[in-house]
Write a structure and sequence with these properties.
It is a single chain. By secondary structure, the chain is of the alpha/beta class. Helix content is 38%, strand content 21%. It has two domains: 197 residues, inorganic pyrophosphatase (n-terminal core) (Alpha-Beta Complex), CATH 3.90.1640; 126 residues, Diaminopimelate Epimerase, Chain A, domain 1 (Roll), CATH 3.10.310.40.
Length: 338
Amino acid sequence: MLDIERNNSHTLTELIDLLKGKTVYVQTHNFPDPDAIGAGYGLQQLLIRQGIDAVLCYHGKIDRLNTRKMVELLGISIFSKEELEGRMGEDDPIICVDSQKMGGNILDLIGDEVACVDHHPTTVPVDYYYKDVRTVGSCATLISEYYDMLGLTPDAMTATALMYGLQVDTGGFTRGVTEEDVHAFGMLHPLADTKILSRLEQNQLVFEDLHAYGAAISNISIYDRIGVAFIPFACQDALIAITCDFILSLEEVDIAVVYSKRDDGYKFSIRAEFFLKEVDCGKMIAEALDGIGSGGGHAYMAGGFVPLEGIQKLGANPDEALVERFLHSLNKAVGLKS
């Protein structure tokens, strides 16, 4: 049974009717990954086919190599906050995709958030005209379902974008997969450009990324199958997450925590093997950082941030204190000794 949060007072069709005649901004989270861009682009194209002017946008940075390649190869137009200056008005509708307002990974733009489509748990309830939040492997799955609901077939580039987002967020169909994701795969695969998909799966790192891998390897400790690694310099969000996936791939690790030191604080990523049903990464990182920072996400992958003022609360040895916090949180969940 799917965990579904929907605003039942309005349907997708009613949302489309509300948006007609307006310029709609489809906003991803701050550092959009392939699923955010795939889902956002898929929704943008769906709205355009309904005669609605739709713009794909974000407030942050596209910092992941495979995401930049995706935008380039599929010819996706996506605009940063800076590029929207003077263009977006306070009454212009915004649809949050693969994110939720007040969720910690999306900053407010000037427009009005009327809708939300996401597959992450809600952390701060917000009243939208239309809300579709479901626990599926990929936000692209939800957008693919909308095409089915409206009797539409996505074109090749749209299907490829949705397909790539689905593949990346489910780790190649190895984590968080639901029946809805499988159905989306069956619909998208015959329509997608497999040559472009193949190119996107190649060369996903650049040379400088190896410094982060090296630092994580040099600064990893393992506590009863929990791997905690520290990167003592600033890293992009996406690279921290990729490094965390790498640490999780170790035979000796079932739960991985990686954090990077930045000028304004520490950025975290946490991952868990999907077979650990008692583990909820989103809840654990929120608990571990409670009172000093914030965090949240899926049961099997999540992220968080501790600002400098939070680090100062940890005393003379903040790294040791952080490890203790995570071990305590994980101990409560799985009964491991910290």
